[in-house]
Amino acid sequence: MRQIVLDTETTGLSAEGGDRIIELGCVELYARKLTGKNLHFYFNPERDSHEDALKVHGISNEFLRDKPKFAELSDEILNYLADAELIIHNAAFDIGFLNKELERVGKKPLNAYVSNVIDTLAMAKEMFPGKRNSLDALCDRLEVDNSGRTLHGALLDAELLADVYINMTRGQEALLIDAGDAPCDSKSVAVSVDLRQYALPILTANAQELAAHEEVLLQLDKASGGKTVWRQANLA
Q1: Which of 26, 86, 149, 199 is 20 to 30 A from 97 via CA?
Q2: Do the beta carbons of residue 89 and residue 161 sit within 8 Å?
């Protein structure tokens, strides 16, 4: 499957209020591997960035003056994204901006060109309820090196998010690899091992571990609004 990890930088926070995309960074994954076929553009947004946005991305208005406008590159961007599954952190934000840029040039919304969108922020909230799930927080939690990220940048952030996504879904990958790498030698012989000959130790949780487990259950219960399986079972 072809996947594109995508990020944007903008002049501000409101696409509907007239803010524009100033940078687009895309990293291609195929079969969950980096291909090196990335896409990276800066755009002239035809307006200045808000002061708060400048503090985030550090891309000056002067730097963008001679860059192409989004309209000039829209076809190339859509051809690159065509039929891919997009991976975006806080997808609603980036897609909202991209849809507004596409609307300006008379094109359909982004979902008409891509196969699917995965929001890694939504994934992270399910995996780590009650915790900070910014890109930096996920890099720290999943041991992805983000030491070079002093300011936000679309391509760098897309590269980091690709690593974060692979780490977040690594369990799925391991299962697929185990199944796919199984030997197909017709001469292989299955060996049965009788485990009854072994005295397997039973390790019980201590008080601290039980308390930590209970805290995780409480957080999951809170995040689901009381709709967890064990809550429903107790009410049955």
Answers
A1: 149
A2: yes
Going by C-beta distance under 8 Å and a sequence separation of 6 or more, which residues neighbour residue 101? 20, 21, 70, 74
Helix 154-168 to helix 120-127 angle (10° resolution) is: 40
At residue 116, the 3 state secondary structure works out as: strand
Tens digits of residue pLDDT in 113-150: 999 999 999 999 999 999 999 999 999 999 999 887 76
Closest CA to 59 of 72, 50, 71, 68: 50
pTM of the model: 0.72
**Among 46, 31, 112, which Cα is nearest to 78's?**
112
Which whole-number Å values give the CA distances from 111 to 2, 29, 107, in the listed order? 16, 19, 11
Which helix (H) or strand (E) is 174 found in, with range? helix 170-180
For residue 135, give both structure tokens.
């890109």
C-alpha to C-alpha distance for 11 and 14, rounded to whole angstroms: 9
Catalytic amino acids? 152
